[in-house]
C-alpha cells in the first residue's frame, strides 16, 4: 500500500497542495507572491498554457524539462525558435508534446514583446487589470474558490485581441493566482498574510 504523503510541519495550508513535496514547496514559496518580473510572468504563461486540459501537478513535475526546452524561459530566444525545433520538442518527454501548445508558446513570446514595447513592460500591462494591487479574496474554504473573474475575462479577451493563444479566462485566472495579482490563499493558510503587500 502506498504511503500517504505527509508534510513535516504543522503550518495550516490550502488543501490543494497536499499531494507531494514539490507541490507544497510551490505553494509555500511561489504561489500568490506578487510578481513584477517579466521573465517570471513569461515562465508562468508558458507553463499555464501548457497546462490547459491537464493538472497543474503534471506541469509542475515537468517544470525543469520546460526550463531546458524553452531557453530558461527567455522570451527573446523562444520568439526565434524555428519550426525544426518544434519538431525536436515533439520528441522531448520532459514537456507536454503538443505541437499546438509548443507553437503557441513561440507565438506568445512574440506577442509578449509587442506588449512590452507598448507598455514598457509586460508587468505594467498585466497589473493594470487589477489596478496595480493584488485582489484579496479572503476565501474561507475551497468551496468559495472561483475559476475565472471579471478581471480574468477582460484580460483574456485583451490577450486574444493581441494574438496570444491558449490563454482563455480560466488559464489567465490561474496565472493571476500564481503571480499574486489575486490572493486566493485561504484566510487560515499561513501564506495568506505572508503574500499580502
Explain what the structure shows:
- The chain has one domain (19-194): Orthogonal Bundle (Endonuclease III, domain 1), CATH 1.10.340.
- The chain is 51% helix and 2% strand.
- The protein has helices spanning 21-29, 38-51, 56-61, 63-69, 75-78, 83-89, 99-119, 122-127, 150-161, 169-178, 190-194; strands spanning 135-136, 182-183.
- A two-stranded parallel ribbon has the order 1-2.
- It is globular and about 50 Å long.
- The model has no long low-confidence stretch (mean pLDDT 95).
- CATH uppermost class: Mainly Alpha
What are the segments in which pLDDT stays under 50 over at least 5 consecutive residues? Answer: none
Q: Give me the Rg, rounded.
A: 17 Å
Strand order, sheet with most strands: 1-2
CATH homology group: Hypothetical protein, domain 2
**How many structural domains?**
1
Pfam families: Adenine_glyco (PF03352)
Organism: Algoriphagus halophytocola
Protein name: DNA-3-methyladenine glycosylase I
InterPro entries: Adenine_glyco, DNA-3mA_glycosylase, DNA_glycosylase
